[in-house]
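Reopening this ticket.

The earlier resolution said the output was attached, but the attachment link was broken on my side. Pasting everything inline this time so it's all in one place.
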Amino acid sequence: MAISLPTWPSRLLARPWLLSFVPINAATAGFGVVLPLLILIPLHGSWSAVALSATLYNSAVILSSVLWGHLSDRFHLRRAFLAINYGGFALLYIALTQVQSLGTLYAIYAVIGLIAPAGASASNLLLLEKFPGKERANAYSSFQEMSIIGSIVGLLIGFVWTTNALALSSVLYVLGALAAVSAVWIWFGVSEGARPHRTSDMALHPESLFSRMRRASTTHNAFPFFPVRPPISPRPFDRFGRWAREEIRHEIPLIFLAMFLFNLSANLYNISFTPYLTSIGIAASSIFLINLSNSAAQGLLFPFTGALTTRIGPDRLVRSSTYLRSLGYLATAAFPLIAWTVPGAFGANAIVYGILGAAVAFFTISSSMMLFRGLHDRDAGRLLGVNSALGGVAAVAGAGLSGVIAIFGSFQLVFLVAAGGLLASLPIWAAATVAYERRTRPKPVETALPPPSSGAPSTVDAPRGTETA
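Inline output:
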């Protein structure tokens, strides 16, 4: 079961109104770099303060994801949810320009996490409802390319702004204006789809699943996706145990575990990366350029991911991209041991972070293919709910672990732990491949023995002769 995504930018834009997603992605990409820099530079916060803000944000995202998914099913108001998401971002970004304390920043960032999932399901449902089946692959590919283009634009704005020695917080006015442009554009320029869908329907379409597995430009991590509202019962561990016993012969639990380790390592690395760059003396404008290398690598390689995955297979590609990403983590851990000059450190980190972006582009589509083929003919909505819950746990755990290591360890230790998590997932991916091949292997057909001939006695039924001395 493969995801039939077009992989060449000749069909860059499926519909002109998809351009409305460029400004919001520019705003969120720039904000993803500005926020930790605000904590570290003007507010004189520490690495642990960045980790704490990420913990609060991820917790808020998880708590509100279930609610926004339920509201998306109950009310056919895609434009309204997108306007709430993007308009709320605009107001909160501008509010952050007046922040004078870390406590206020934590509170505003948590509110941003509460409204962030409002547009996650709405945007995917809007595409699902606006495009027929034959055009849907083009639509989701264009949606992803608008996200990548927007990310590059937002990071370039941050670079130009900070290069001119303007106040770091003032760039939030520009980012807020970009978010407001998307909110207004979608509200007045896009109509609702004719046929309403439910969030569980997204699990049935591979293009939508791939889109949901993409990393958010704000944090480089995926939003939790709950296509079916998680049931609340007094015995969650018993229910999980029954599910594990039922799935023990399937590859799905192995895929979930490997993706959990990937998300845990990615959160741990990404949250610590900007504080690490600041600690070695790299300027804010250069940090924007390093993040730009990551987005640019994804943008350049995205058109080729589908073809390469089809050529060499998702199983092999997911292991290769995981291994490549772990090498990038190990290289970052080794950089503090080298006596770099600041320009040398900038170049080395930009190259490595670009390689990590290329690896995640290939990982995302290959892991999505493995997940989708495992969901075939199954309760895809509930299984994706379990996967999203594990992804949410990984986001909070990665942020919390980063804060703990910030107090008792070093940047080298956090990058080594992140690399170890990725390396530990490699045999799990291999086991998932073996489980899938074993489950789908054709069973041998048993052939019955021909009946004995009626004309002559069978050698089996022939009477025995009398034994003589």
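Reporter confirms the inline version is readable. The chain is about 70% helix and 0% strand. The first helix runs from residue 21 to 40.
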